[in-house]
């Protein structure tokens, strides 16, 4: 718990520029309402969240990993986590898995996932689907769904 409070406090103080007392308040509220995973919003936390999701994906599959770790997140945030998972799969060379996860992230309305998926489809000659995804990404990019 101390690590969570310290990480959230340090992140909110440096990234948001808010006073230390407010940072501690945010961290304490996150823990009180059951969001100790607020630490995942830090750079180190994001890498750890992706690692946890990647292990769950390998162990139980995408649907179970989504249900277990992402079901309580807003769609945009779930899309962000899925996008990070897809990037990790891409780095490992799992193209089939990465594409499936990019597709799920795009379904959540995450524009970078739509663009990545559209680029893949375009390279394969699936131009109509790619254009539709590029269009959706452009439309979604102007809205803040966070």
Radius of gyration: 17 Å
Shape: globular
The total of helices stands at 8
Write the H/E string, N to C: HHHHHHHH
* Residue share in β-strands: under 5%
Roughly how many Å apart are the termini? 26 Å
Question: For the residues shown, what is the average pLDDT?
Answer: 77
Total strand count, please? Answer: 0
Low-confidence stretches: 1-16, 36-45
SS-based class = mainly alpha
Q: How many strands, what sense, and barrel or not for the largest sheet? A: none
Report helical residue fraction.
Answer: over 70%
Structure, explained:
With 146 residues, the protein is mainly alpha-helical. Helices cover 77% and strands 0% of the residues. The protein is built from eight helices and no strands. The protein has helices at 2-16, 20-32, 43-60, 62-69, 75-92, 95-107, 111-123, 127-141. Helix 3 packs across helix 5 (75-92), helix 5 (75-92) runs antiparallel to helix 6 and helix 6 packs across helix 7 (111-123). The longest helix is centred in the middle third of the chain and has 18 residues, at 43-60. The protein starts with a helix and ends in a 5-residue tail after the last helix.
Keywords:
mainly alpha; disordered N terminus; 146 residues; 77% helix; 8 helices
């Amino acid at each position: 718990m101390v690590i969570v409070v310290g990480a959230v406090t340090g992140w909110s103080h440096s990234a948001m520029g808010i006073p230390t007392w407010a940072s501690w308040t945010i961290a304490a509220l996150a823990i009180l309402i059951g969001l100790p995973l607020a630490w995942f919003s830090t750079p180190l936390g994001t890498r750890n969240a992706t690692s946890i999701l990647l292990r769950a994906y390998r162990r139980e599959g995408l649907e179970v990993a989504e249900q277990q770790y992402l079901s309580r997140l807003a769609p945009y945030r779930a899309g962000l986590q899925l996008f990070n998972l897809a990037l990790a799969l891409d780095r490992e060379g799992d193209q089939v898995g990465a594409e499936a996860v990019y597709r799920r992230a795009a379904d959540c309305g995450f524009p970078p996932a739509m663009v990545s998926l559209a680029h893949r489809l375009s390279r394969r000659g699936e131009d109509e689907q790619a254009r539709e995804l590029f269009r959706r990404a452009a439309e979604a990019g102007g809205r803040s769904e966070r």
